[in-house]
Amino acid sequence: MRVVTKALLRHLRRRRSLSLLQLLGIACGVAAAVGMALSAQVSLSSFEKAVEFLKGQATHSLERPAGPLEETVLTQLMVDPAVQAFSPVIDRRVRLNDGETIRLLGLDPFLDQKIRPQLIQSRPTETPLQARDSFAFFLDEKAILIDEQLAAQFRLQPDQLLETSRGKFKIIGAFPNASGEPIILIDIGHAQRLFEIPGKIDRVDLIVSDDADFRSRWESGFRIQSGRQRQATLRDMLQAFRLNLQALSLLALFVGIFLVYNTAMFTVVSRRKDAGILRSLGASRREILRAFFSEILLLGSIGGAMGGLAGFLLSRFLTNLVAGTISNLYFFLRPAPLEWSWSVLLISIVLGCGASILGGLFPLIELIRVDPVQVLRGRTAVRGRKGFAWKAALTGVGVLVISFVLFALAAVHVYFGFAGSFALLIGASLITAFVLVYLNPILKKFLPLLSGLPGKVAAGNIRQNLGRTAVAVAAFMVAISMSIGLSSMIGSFRQSLVWWMGTQLQADLFIGKIDEVEVPESFYDEVRTIPGLNGFDLYRNVQVLYKGKPIYVSSVEAAVLQKYTNFGWLKGGNENWEPVKKGGVIISESFYRRFGIKEGDTVTLEGVSGPASLKVAAIFYDYTSEHGVIMMDRSTYLRIFNDRAINTLGVFVNPQNSRRKELLEEVKRRAVQRGLPVYTRDQLWENILSVFDSTFAVTRSMQVLAIIVAFFGIAGALMTLFIERQREFGIYRALGFSTRQVASMTLMEGLGMGLVSFLMSTGVGTLLAWVLIRVINLRSFNWTIFFHPAWEPYVVAFGTAVLASLGAAIYPIWKVYKTYPQMQIREE
Amino acid sequence: MSTVIQVVDLWKQYDRIDQPNSAALRGANLDIKAGEVIALYGKSGSGKTTLLNILAGLDRPTKGRVSIEGNDLEALGEDGKTVLRRQRLGFVFQFFNLLPTLTAFENVFLSLELAGKPKHDLALKALESVDLKGKESRYPHELSGGEQQRVAIARAVVKEPAIILADEPTGNLDTRTGEQVLTLLTHRCREYGTTLIMATHSPLTCRFSDRILRMVDGIVVEETPCLETQS
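^ Those are the sequences you sent over. The predicted structure of the assembly is below.
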């Protein structure tokens, strides 16, 4: 190795603490990005694997636009020339005692042989059971096959019982399940009886030889999806969610790169003199560049590798969060844990090196342009740097203007919004030095109040070492702003959600669950006869395709909702229900923004009798789905889809009714008797908020990581200030400063930087919150979140800033106590 | 003896906010023959260091001409000046300026590596010639001031440069050590016919020089005899 390179690289060993900080910063940034990327990848590949497994050999699926299908279609399919094989399916969910939801597939084992041959080994006739048990699948209406993972999870053996919300099932065998999703198989006839849908099935999976030919006969009144279309539909549903996950991981990497820039700046500062000496000895700029580049790559590789390992471990935690969110909001997902692969390490190293190069680029340019004359004279150009602060601030203002332009362009695509957010953070970072100069007189008054003369000196040191302090403050400010911005957005969203629930979810009792077909019509027939109950909302929610994109259709009792709820309308009031009672529809804000449909426009849905055109009466605020909701009266729904299923039954009782409590108890009792889930209004709201809170668990973990990364920034700045000012400390000692005073000065430097970071982040974080609410969320999910300013995020941010900056000062203070008593004024 | 350094009407002006149009050099002229040992004598701020930095190609003059071994310095360009510093110039500083992460041997070897002559034995011999045999593996912070300056001298002389520029070589040393260092440096230069220019405000340095050029306010005023008795 060339001695020039050796000269620079050995600094890493000499300044172990700084090198470690730099490594940890890179590692944290890479870990966050890798963790997020891996967990998203695992979740999505699990989902694709699950879809593939369950699809089997089927090329198409046939179902009604909404609701179950009559089994009489099977006779027609039997003679259809384009159909090579078909298998009717009942695809439902049941709940176990612990609340976990599992998939129940009702199949005809003989017809299903050609569609899902991978299940053939688990056919009753193939299991190593007694002959009588082989027929149990057909004869015993409670006989099921269970997937091997589920059996292992609950330690279940053949002949044992599995308790579910639909009663107890007898296990007669197990089958291997590559989908990862817990599944039980039951004979389709028994499934029809179980779910009280005699003569009906959910869909038919088919092997079709001629797509066009088949569609020509079956397109009207049915929904036909090829395997690819089905996968695309499911992927579409996750699009906005995936986008925001990607943005989160990029944000984490951005903070990581910032930290690398931070520590690379410190590196440059400490190498400045060496670079000057080397230039005076005849080293070319290229050689210095090469040497510093080696250092960047070395740190990037090691930090990246560390980050890769940490990211892999983090992904296991994040995968559960991501999968949980997808399961709560979209469709069930239980991803298999990620297996270790050396490619993770390789990619992490590349990422770490990339982050290092990006973060070290400007410091590197500065290093190779170092003026040897200035350096050898002992003048460090970073000190003071008033001109630099102005120039950076002007550039920052320019970048901020660009960010606002990008926000305006977010209407074209949400990527512009994300780019604008990054530009906002970069622009604000560039202004930091100017803010430090501007706020310095305030620090000079405030810090001495806390610690006297050391505080005054500390304020001056922050100002005089802008090259170090500005970058550290900027990194910390970015992290705290993210914390304020995300917390404010989540808080506003939560408040908006509470408001929305207050507009729509007003029933006294909710029976059933929105994502399950739970409530039999016979139960409704039973409870409606109870005198004293004022209203029932039979709620149905189904996913359909509109212009090839998944949306939701909801059916409600318009008259009841008009009386008992107060929907949040974009225009008008409850008079908007009148057209709905007569066959019109209302649409959610997401639908309106996604498809550009307004009041007075017409939407066409594919029903059982062909296309049905419906007039849009009004638009309402809604957070049920970002894909959009078309809501109609049940009579309209039945006319179009002929689907009598009920997802939830809402029960309304007049608040003035003296028998109110008794009536509700009676309904509850009857529901429980039937094994139906029952929620009071408060319980339902609580469940929804609980799902909401768990949805943002991923976001919160990224917030924490960003704070940790920025903490290293402040720690690095304080360490560098300590290391480089040894001569100054010698002067302090000669002048009579005690060790405690110098330690206090270091503490005040940390606190001062933390406070300035916090002050800047109040503005930047608030702006970021506004952007997240009004731009990102609006463009990603097509819904309006109302800004509810709250004080909690700012208090938490203040606490974080103070604690983190004090914590970052601990090690430098320890070094002061250890080394200060021996310090003298020495040139070398 | 041929002229090895020629400086004609050299100016270096700075535009500082607090000192507009201040000049470190105001038309300095110099003519130095090969093998001469020159003391550039003047008070602090007289322009000595600025002149040395320009001669080394580290700084650029505002006006004037510098030629080193017959080559116009400005015409060499940045790459040419780098080659000049590698192969034809040695530099000795007041504050030694050894690389703290390299041992004494490595600091000297660095010079050879840059000059394209990476021979270990040359570095070892150079250290031996400055009486530092046995201390090759010590880091600068493990050496005294005088030892560090001797390493710096070894680093400067090991590549057998045509010219050595020494900026206050004894400025950070006690008198006795300073004398030892000057003896070593001047003896080595005279032995190899190396031109030595020493910027100094110490009369001690003058005793070792062939010529003493006095600098006042950015101008080489006069050639003067040794000022030791006068100070």
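The interface with chain A takes residues 49, 53, 56, 58-59, 79, 82-87, 89, 91, 93, 95-102, 106, 109-111, 113-115, 140-141, 148, 155, 172 of chain B (CB under 8 Å). Chain B has a mean pLDDT of 87.

Shout if you want it in another format.
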